[in-house]
Amino acid sequence: MVLPALLALVVFNYYPIIQTFIYTFFDLDLTTDWLNAPFSGLDNYRAVMGSGQFWYTFLFTIGFTVAVVALDLGLGMGLALATFHVPQRVRGILRAIIIIPWAIPKVIQASMWRWMLNADVGPIADLVVRAGLAEQPPLFLVNQFLAMGSVALAYTWKGASIAAFFFMGGLALVPREILESAKVDGAGPLRRFFAITLPILMPTVYVALLYRTQDALRVFDVVYGLTGGGPGTSTDTLSSFAYTEYFRYAQFGQGSTYAVVTFALVAIIGVFYIGRIRRNLNFRE
Amino acid sequence: MRKSPVIAVLALLMIPSLAFAGGGGEEPAPEGPVTVTLGYNAFLSSTFTDAPAPIDAIRAELARQYPDIVLEYETMAQDLLDTLIIWMTSQDTTVDIYGIDEPWVTQFGRAGWAVPLNEALPGLDERFSESGLETFSYEGDRLGVPFWGSVTGLYYRTDILDEYGFEPPETIDEMVQIIQAVQAEDPEISGFLWPGARDEDLVMYYSTLLHAFGGSYLNADGSYAFDSEASREALEFMRQSIETGVSPQVVQNWQRTEARQRFAGGNGIFLWDNNDLVIWLDDPEQSQISGNWDLMPFPAQPDGEEVSITGGFAFAVNPFSENQEAAMRVMEVISSEAVQKGFALAWGPVQYFDGLYEDPEVQNFNPNVDRLIPLLERATNRPPSESYAQLSGMLQEELNAAVTGTRSIDSVLASMAERAQALRD
To answer: What stretch of H or E contains B379?
Structure first.
């Protein structure tokens, strides 16, 4: 029964990964005769590792991931908790608001934020000036650090919504009677959250952490649509390197190498997380 | 019993195979119409005037000249390049003809991803201008039939210049003086608008400035001259125009559309752009400056050169097509006066078909076409490279770093020269 599914998994998931890995050992570009492609050993890896821009981008991607995952989970948890503590009639509206960012495609999300952050006509720049925080509309996508923050903000807008989904499901499983008993015993909201809700929720937190980390490490659409990697190369990410080499420059060997390095990074972090999660999960035998 | 419907369906599916199985001899040559598939984005079925969309013009002329060829239109994504790279590397035959953008020509030419047209369409050189065909040529091979092109220039507001008593500027310095004089009276007005985002347009704008300050792409020994004095002046002008308020701060992140919108909205004195605007800038529904603008070659400094940087699309034939002969007939039709005129009527200039703009109907649809002649006389291609996509990508990164002040101009100049040379080596 599982054979067709297994076959589909091998053909559509594992075969492209193995093929991409093989490409990294060949000097492949648009002029190469693929059947007689010159073997280049580890040259592509040396070129990637020897590139200063690669290491800058690597560090930016890691820093970006740490920041946005923390924001995603923190805001996501806050939103999820809010849906359980607002009056019943508001709950549906709040859940609908949470679902909207999730439902918007990433490319449209990027365009939307590009407009929101526009210094000329964007509402955020206008609000900053009206609030007296700046005399001139801030150039969110021009200043290096503001651009990095803007990318993180736009990414988190959707990421927090996805994390909230996870947490709403997890919170629904927390037994109400335990929380009520703790309340009767005099435990405050913070105590109840950290002593009861969070420990029960930890498996969900780990899964959300793994999912959001992997997604952030592979970020592409939002950056591509919002800053295009600029100003200069300030917001380039590992995935944008692979995309550019492969689909803009047709440097298939080099592009595959960037993709494999990104994959390795995601896989290492994934394996580390899963190792941690296993200790906290009870799988059905 | 439960399997019987499945068996019946399978048997039905096998009937056609069984019917042909006993033939034994050679398969007869297919008769009837041949289908050629043309791949391009959705624009081909769009028109910006009352004239029919270009795809309809092509089909009409094809029906007249080659009624046995049916043209299918494969609507591709707005950005064709990703799909084309995947198709070409996998020798895909989905499309027989596809649209090719000017920056991709060397890449596709090197890879053999476009069939040379020299022998199949020998009359091209007689019907099209040399500059138009050369844009889509690689090592002497004509790879594309151009159908839409562009040249860059300087738009300016005639009403503002008249009001303040200025003639159109003859140098960049004069342009700056005009802006400063107008802004002294009207500080809210934007002076000079251009696209500073990390995009291909920034490379084209830089190319314009490089020549305007007396530079060129290459040194006498063939090496790139991106670290020349003229290149430095070009980058310094970009930065200073922002720092001094000659250009608004927001140009640093502007793509072409945003610069256009502000100019067409009436808040701009000068705009660097291509000829796209001439077809709608006099339309009061789209423009606030109808009748109050003009277009001229971008001015150069006294020791510089006025240039208009070219752009545009052509159609090319897929080398893996199984219908190359029929595809060539479609290309012949696309290169005809009727179809080129169809593009001019629906999309406006520039087409490179000789004598097209002397046609009264074309003139009627494009009343501003005379404004393009000085620009076409100064038509200049973008920096030459066997790997233009990489060269352009590198220049976009470096130029945007200079424009936004992310890195110093010295650092950018050195890096541009070093990285360009590395690509050549």
So the answer is: strand B379-380
